[in-house]
User: What shape does this take?
Amino acid sequence: MKKILLGCIADDFTGATDLANNLVRAGMRVVQTIGVPKQPLEAEVDAVVVSLKTRTIAATQACAESLAALHWLQAQGAQQIYFKYCSTFDSTPQGNIGPVIDALMRALQTDFTIATPAFPDAGRTVFKGYLFVGATLLHESGMQDHPLTPMTDPSLVRVLAPQTRHQVGLIDYTVVAQGESAIRARIDALRAEGVAIAIVDAVSNADLLRLGAALSDMPLVTAGSGVAIGLPANFGIAPNDRASALPRVGGLQAIVSGSCSRATNAQVAAFIATGAPALAIDPLRLQQGVSVIEQVIAEALVFSQAHLAKGPVLVYSTAEPEALKHIQDQMGVHVAGQLVEQTLARIAVGLVKQGVGQLIVAGGETSGSVVQALGMTQLQIGAQIDPGVPWCAGKTAVSEKTLHITLKSGNFGTSDFFSKAFHRID
Assistant: This one.
């Protein structure tokens, strides 16, 4: 197996796909693995994205899993390491972004790295160190209501500083606009001041491309997925159609949605408005015990079996913020999330057994549970549907057929995403 060029560690499964998508668009052949691989890669590729589920677990465990991924990537010959987190910089005050960056810096024996969740194609920009979602500051974007990682401060320097042992600085837009030489000079100046991690402004793809050129010799890059568009050129790779080619896959079509983000709420509403079949899962029923959970799963699969032959079916637990808060008050944040994710994952397994060959999963935590329940270990990355969301293909443990699957971050995609995605794969 040829050595890989770029080794990536992502803190959730949809984020991994988001990063892989941008690398493919820039010409790299990419495989996304579900966890640290235990078997050889199924294809010769330029980059591997190891997808973990570490965003909301204990910081010590997140660091341990990230280091295990790093060691595997180093064994594959990776020349540069990329730690990918969410474009909304999701974290708690205790981590996990800062602790994982610190652990990777120690392991790689590097004294400096950058941090920027900027992804302009998806409306995420950083200006003077402040993160915007569209035209709105992060803490007014809906992320302040996130059930696990509420973001109440848009200043990335202030958010990251308490999480890391290192001093945090800023490379602002005036420097980035001047290009590679100016960025490198600013990095040297920050190093001299004792700064080890620099938040970087970026308001356009041009900014990311300028930044990418300045990172060619940096052992560790930490970012959302946006910076990925500027890295393949450092390895002499240019955009090409071959990188996104997937095997053709037929089969029935279905969606499972566990995200409660504004974007996904709009997508669920738009799908239902078309008159297509949709079944809501009530999280409060799930707390009644195993027998009720089994009944909910059975009901969902009976419903899907009655409608799948006619077109896409949606099974969802998406809820508006007020309803979500009521559910969390009744069940507890983590209990509610885990019950919904596990239930939807088992429904997804049933859907594939019913002949679904094209599956959309909405929500990062839900996506992680679904691919694990399906026994998927490697995903080949295909063409983009919306910024940050491609179709993928991979083998499952529940069917002999290859499955086309897209893992959609809750905040990504236009309101017509569900319908559009299936049209893009026909």
Summary: The longest strand covers residues 378-386. Residues 98 and 146 are 19 Å apart (CA to CA). The first helix runs from residue 13 to 25.
